[in-house]
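Help!! Second protein's tokens look totally different from the first
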Amino acid sequence: MKFKRPSIRFGVVCKKKYSIVVTILMVLLVCIYVGIKHQVSTYKKAVKKYIGNYSADVHKHTSIIISSAQVPSEEYSKHGSALIPYIFTQTLDHFDVGTDLSFDQTFYVNDEFYKPGGPIWFVCQGEEKAAPDRISGFIKGIKNSNFLLEMVKETSGMILLVELRYFGTSLPVQSLEAESLKHFTVDQILEDFATIIRRINIEEYSAKYRKYLTTRGFRKPKWIYFGCSFSGSLGAWMRKKYPNLVDMAYVSSGPVETTEDFYYADKNVLERYPCKDKLLMAIQLLDAIFEAPYSNKYLVDECIHKYENCPASKQKVKELCQLSASNNNNNVDSSGRDDDNDDDGDDDDDDFLYLIGSVVTTLMQYNAKATEYNDHNEDTDLVSEKTEVDELCTYLADSYDSTTTLLSLLKFINLNVIERVKNTNNIKETKDIKTALYRKQMGKNLSPHGPRPWLYLTCNEVGLFFTSSKKSWAQASLKSSRINLNYYRKSCIDWFSNGTDTYNGPAVEALTKKYGGYNFIDNRTIYVDGENDTIYPATVTFNVYTNLLKGNATKADLYPNVILLKSGHHHSEIVGDVDQVSDEIRTARLKIIAMFKHWLRDQDKAR
């Protein structure tokens, strides 16, 4: 069978059809090319307008260092199980143009809730190593594990967690000697934050943001600063100094009215302790034993007369807390006498008294749920329904005079503080307990993970020394009257003076004057404070409710962004699931989220 040769007509038809197809393909290719060119042009304009030409405008000493292994993928952005630490190369001294020294500042990014147009929450956790687990609770499947995550989710934002200089892995120096700490100041910290906000390219760390960056509707992200306690203070000062960089702020329990002799903390806690009368009896006898100013020595005579086991000496009191030299067999010589002279010094006595007072005030400051020892050898202790304040007052419930109350207080501190510190750190020696708990010992700790940088900042600039409010015979205090301004100043001199400098205390007045103290009330900052907090008298909220509103809560609507929690403590509105917090905190949370959403909408409309 022969096949017929195709006709010329069929060849012409095929040729015409082929030409039409080619023409259509050419048109499509041109359209695609034009579209891509327009998209690239739009991308370049957006980047140049809102981020700047970062390839050519990188600061001489401030840049992002990121390895290829750290580039986040789309999968990581959605389902990452752990947050990756990144490094920002930060300038050591922002105010000396003649230096090029820098250090690595650690930061983390969580974009799990990010949607186009959402804000960036700039988070600093204060004077400690950055804890990324606190900004990744939802990733672990813990719903509403803290209020920060709830706010970020509700505003479709992402979190940029920045570690404070001199803490964690963000160490500018190898040694923590006094000279090496000179760059740890409030202004240097604020400039760190401002530099990061100006220079960071978020698209390098968030696939979600990178995708949004290429869309036609791209807008420059709004920045919300979030901080608690000292990091909250930094947020208030950031809004004062850099309102063009930080659009809004959340300040939880952030003291801003810096003062050196901060005895107001003691007074505030004293007024609110449910068993304050018994605590005062114990502290009065303790002061008499340690011969503190304005103490009644006859209380010791009464104790000796009534009780055979009266702890009438300093050593006996310390023995009850395992903090006497006699508690350590290694410190007793062959004759049985105390061979440790450390107990004989005023410094040791003052640190012991500081510890007792700090335990009492700190319990009220946080009022955390009490933890009970688990007797069934399980991995975790039991969490009680009672608070630690309730537990302390229960210990004192059956006491009836200064001696029985002091003995009960010392028993509580020994079991709930000393024993736990020993067990947690596997401590056996008395001197090691003192190193862990005594304030002056903490300041001598040159470890990069210790509190020395923070103590330097308090001695140099911030102050807020929790002194005794007992300044005369007529006054009462939960702290020994020996814990006065001289105690703190002497510590600062011992830690940071070279022996020739004159120390006149921290520059608290200059700091308050520069940033306005609690008189600077920003209308795009939310201030939240608990009335039972030790630092409450140094906050904007205290100034508003005590000085401006004169206690008239009916006028609170005049300051809707200033929120007082009558039953609140130190940043108590931040921690806890929705079903675990009080109605007062739950209501405050709803108000706060609504306020941020309102402000974000207002700023969008203004663009």
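Here's the second one for comparison:
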Amino acid sequence: MNKKLTLLLVALIAALTFTSCSTDDDADTADYFVGYWEGKMGTYFYDELGYGTDYYYSQLDIQRTSKYGGWGRERDYNGYHSFVTIDFQWTVQDGYIYFHYSNGAEVALDFEMDGSYDGTTRMRAIVYDTHTGNAVGNAELYRINSWYDDWYDNSFWAKPDALPQKEEE
């Protein structure tokens, strides 16, 4: 009896250990997504010649209000100095970022993010219509700042060779 109880306790401890060590990837993604992003967004469409894509310069302001989401504002510029601004709610679920726009449109971003040596974060995404499941666009955005930026670094200091040098007499 004692041996069975010991074996049961070991199995229970192992099960609890593995379940309590799980990571919350969606919350981590939501953390990483907050900030100001800008870059190129494209929309797919069918015209009289077949398949085409329109690209816009876009700016996104992403704010977080919960563990998995928040609100945002998207501004899309066309080549003629006009722009459209639209608000949205966003959530992260099962590895996708969902946008629920104020005009009723809903899209899901299947994305990948990567960083570079200078701290720039790039996000590339395929945009899907959540109602039809069809790909309706793509995006390549760069985070220009976030809550986690230090707002300063050593690049703001004068470089030693930029300072006037005393002439030796």
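Reply: Different proteins will give different token patterns, so don't panic. Strands lie at 35-47, 50-64, 69-77, 83-93, 96-101, 106-115, 121-129, 135-145.
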